[in-house]
Design brief:
Helix content: 40-55%
Bound molecules: phosphoenolpyruvate
Strand order of the largest sheet: 1-8-7-3-4-5-6-2
Radius of gyration: 28 Å
Shape: elongated
Oligomer: single chain
CATH class of the largest domain: Alpha Beta
Number of strands: 17
Number of helices: 22
Strand content: 5-15%
Largest sheet: 8 strands, mixed
CATH topology of the largest domain: TIM Barrel
C-alpha cells in the first residue's frame, strides 16, 4: 500500500502518534500435534501435565498482574485476577479433567474447552463479547506451558517509535508495552471496552481498534499515523498531516487535578456535546465535566426526551466521574440551535431573541420542569447526594478540592437577576414536589453562564445568589462585539482577545470576589494553552474545554505563577486594541 491512505476504525485512546509499523503475530506457534488414539493416552500423566501448566500459567499471570499494577494501577491490573479465576473455574477445570479421563491429551482438552467458552462469549453482545479476549489470553498461556512453546515476542523491548499492528492484542500483550517506545497501536479486532483497549488507554498509548479495512496490507517498516481521537490510521501520512496531528498531542495525559507552580488549584474539565464524549474526556485526564450541553439530548429527533432518558444520561456521566463535578447546562436552544418540534418563535434576529433560560421560564416551562426533575433526581447520585455543596440553594459552595464531586446545574443566556430568582424558585418547587412524592433527590450546585454583557455587569448580584458562574466566551465575544459567531464577514470582530471581551471576563471574576461562588470558563478560550496564564490571571477557578486540549492546558497550569499571571492580566486590561493585547501576550496577529 502506498500512501497517504486513511483507514478507519474505532478511536480507543484519543491521542495521536506516528511511527514505524511493526506487525505482531501473537507470538509462538500454538498448533497442536494430531490427536492420538485415546487408548494410547495415560490420563494420570495428562492430569499431571495439566496441573503443572495451570501452575505455570498462574505464576505468569501473577507476574503480569504485578507488572501491570506498577505501570497502570490496581484497577486496570485487576483483569489479571479474573484471568487467574479462569484457571480455577470448576466449569472449565472439571470439563478438562473429564476429557482427560476419557483419553484426551491435556492440550486438546484445554483447547476444546476454551474454544467452547470463547464461542459462547463471542455470541453475546458488546462488553461480554470482549471477554472472549481474556479467555484467549488464558488459553494461550496454558497451551504455551503444555507445548513448551517459547514465550511470545518480548513486547516490552520494542524499539522507540514503533506503531504496533496486530490482528488482536490480549490484555497481557498490552500490559507489556512500554508507552515511551510504542507510538501507537492499531488492531483489526477488538472494541473500545476490551481489557486490552482499557490498558492501552491507561498507558496513554494512541490506539485505534476494529480497523477491519485493509490494515493487513500495511507492510512492516511503513510510516503510520494512529489518530485515536478520529479513529483513523493514516498510512504514509505526509509531513503536513503528521505535524498537525502531533502539534495537538504532545502533552502527556495528567489524570490527577493540577495546581499552579505556587499552589493555586485550577480544575481542568471537559465540554461534552454527547454521551459518547464522556469516556474520551475521562481518558484525557478531565477533572469532571465543566459543560454538559444537554441540548444534544433534544436534537435530531421528533419529540423531547422524557425525564427518565435525561436522568439516565446524567447519571451515566456522574458514574464516569465519581470523584468530580459534572456541570449540566439546562436546555440552551434558540439562536443557532433550532429544534423543529418545539415550534420556537420566528424572530428577525434569533440570537437576540427567545433563547436559553428565556424559553425555559416561559414558553417551555414544562420542558424545564421535566429537566429539573431529572437533574434533581440525578443529583442524589452525586457525592453525599448533595452535589458537593449548596444543597439548599443558599448560594454557598465549598471549593475545597476534596469536596468538588457531584452534580451542578447551570442556566444559559442569563441577562437578568429576576431570571436567576425565577429559576431558583422553580428548583425549589420541583424539590418540594419530589419530596412530596417520596422520590429520592437532592439540590445540586446551581450556577449561571456569563455569556451576555448584562450577566458580566451583574456578576456580583448573580454570584451572591448562586454557587458558581461560568464564562461562555463564544457567545460573550459575540454579544460584547455585536458580531455573529457564525458569520465569516465579522469573524475579525468575534475575538475573545478583544480588550472589551477581556474586560467583561475580568468584571465577572471581580464581581464574584468576596462571595462564595466559584468562577469557571467554558468557552473555546479556556482550551487554548497559550491563554492559560491569562485565564489564571483573571482569577478563574475552573477551565472547561474540548477534551483534546486538556493535557496541554494542565501542563501549562503547572508552570504558571499566579502573581505573574495577575500582572499579565493587568497589563492586558490596560490595552485598548486587539493588536496591543496580542503584543502583550506575545501572539502573532
Ligand atoms: C460554551 C459556550 O456555549 P456554546 O455551547 O453556545 O458554545 C459559549 O458560548 O462560550
Amino acid at each position: 500500500m502506498t500512501g497517504p491512505t486513511t483507514l478507519t476504525g474505532i478511536g480507543s485512546t484519543p491521542r495521536t502518534g506516528v511511527g514505524t509499523a511493526r506487525w505482531y503475530r501473537g507470538g509462538a506457534d500454538l498448533t497442536l500435534p494430531d490427536r492420538p488414539d485415546p487408548s494410547t493416552v495415560d490420563p494420570a500423566i495428562e492430569r499431571e501435565r495439566f496441573e503443572a501448566a495451570r501452575e505455570e500459567a498462574r505464576e505468569a499471570i501473577r507476574l503480569a498482574r504485578d507488572r501491570a499494577e506498577a505501570r497502570v494501577g490496581g484497577e486496570e491490573a485487576a483483569v489479571f485476577d479474573a484471568h487467574e479465576a479462569f484457571l480455577d473455574d470448576p466449569g472449565i477445570v472439571d470439563d478438562v479433567e473429564d476429557a482427560i479421563a476419557d483419553g484426551t491429551p491435556a492440550e486438546h482438552a484445554v483447547r476444546d474447552r476454551f474454544e467452547a467458552a470463547i464461542g459462547q462469549f463471542e455470541g453475546m453482545d458488546g462488553r461480554m463479547a470482549e471477554r472472549a479476549d481474556d479467555l484467549r489470553d488464558v488459553r494461550d498461556r496454558l497451551l504455551r506451558a503444555l507445548l513448551d512453546a517459547p514465550t511470545p515476542t518480548d513486547l516490552s523491548t520494542l524499539p522507540a517509535g514503533t506503531v504496533l499492528l496486530a490482528e488482536r492484542l490480549t490484555p497481557s500483550d498490552t500490559a507489556e508495552l512500554d508507552p515511551a517506545a510504542v507510538a501507537g497501536i492499531a488492531t483489526v479486532a477488538g472494541g473500545r471496552t476490551s481489557h486490552a483497549a482499557i490498558i492501552a488507554r491507561s498507558l496513554s498509548i494512541p490506539a485505534v481498534v476494529g480497523v477491519v479495512d485493509a490494515l493487513a496490507e500495511v507492510a512492516d517498516g511503513t510510516e503510520v499515523l494512529v489518530d485515536g481521537e478520529a479513529g483513523e490510521v493514516v498510512v504514509e501520512p505526509g509531513e503536513k498531516r503528521r505535524a498537525a496531528a502531533l502539534r495537538k498531542d504532545d502533552a502527556p495525559v495528567v489524570p490527577e487535578p493540577v495546581s499552579t507552580a505556587d499552589g493555586r488549584a485550577i480544575e481542568v474539565a471537559a465540554n461534552v456535546g454527547s454521551g459518547a464524549e464522556v469516556p474520551p474526556a475521562s481518558d484525557r485526564g478531565a477533572d469532571g465535566i465543566g459543560l454538559f450541553r444537554s441540548e444534544f439530548l433534544f436534537l435530531d429527533r421528533e419529540s423531547p426526551p422524557d425525564e427518565e432518558e435525561q436522568y439516565e444520561a446524567v447519571v451515566a456521566a456522574l458514574e464516569a466521574f465519581p470523584d468530580d463535578r459534572i456541570v449540566v447546562r439546562t436546555l440552551d436552544v434558540g439562536g443557532d440551535k433550532q429544534v423543529p418540534y418545539l415550534d420556537l418563535p420566528e424572530e428577525p434576529n434569533p440570537f437576540l431573541g427567545r433563547r436559553g433560560i428565556r424559553l425555559s421560564l416561559e414558553e417551555h416551562a414544562d420542558l424545564f420542569e421535566t429537566q429539573l426533575r431529572a437533574l434533581l433526581r440525578a443529583a442524589a447520585h452525586g457525592r453525599d447526594g448533595n452535589g458537593g455543596g449548596g444543597s439548599e440553594g443558599d448560594g454557598a459552595s465549598d471549593d475545597d478540592r476534596d469536596d468538588r464531586g457531584g452534580l451542578a446545574v447551570m442556566f444559559p443566556m442569563v441577562s437578568r437577576v429576576e431570571e436567576v430568582e425565577a429559576a431558583l424558585d422553580r428548583v425549589e418547587s420541583v424539590a418540594a414536589d419530589l419530596a412530596a412524592e417520596g422520590v429520592d433527590h437532592a439540590v445540586p450546585e446551581l450556577g449561571a453562564m456569563v455569556e451576555t454583557p448584562a450577566a458580566s455587569y451583574l456578576a456580583d448580584a448573580l454570584a451572591a445568589r448562586l454557587d458558581f458562574l461560568s464564562v461562555g466566551t463564544n457567545d460573550l465575544a459575540g454579544y460584547v462585539m455585536a458580531a455573529d459567531r457564525e458569520s465569516d464577514a465579522v469573524a475579525d470582530y468575534h475575538d475573545p482577545l478583544h480588550p472589551a471581551v477581556l474586560r467583561a471576563i475580568d468584571r465577572t471574576t471581580a464581581g464574584a470576589e468576596g462571595t462564595d461562588a466559584w468562577v469557571g470558563m467554558c468557552g473555546e478560550m479556556a482550551g487554548d494553552p497559550e491563554l492559560t496564564e491569562l485565564s489564571v490571571g483573571f482569577g478563574l477557578d475552573e477551565l472547561s474545554m474540548s477534551a483534546v486540549t486538556i493535557p496541554a492546558v494542565k501542563e501549562r497550569v503547572r508552570e504558571v505563577d499566579s502573581a505573574e499571571a495577575r500582572e499579565l492580566a493587568e497589563a492586558v486590561l490596560r490595552c485598548e486594541t486587539r493588536a496591543e493585547v496580542r503584543d502583550v501576550l506575545g501572539l502573532d496577529e
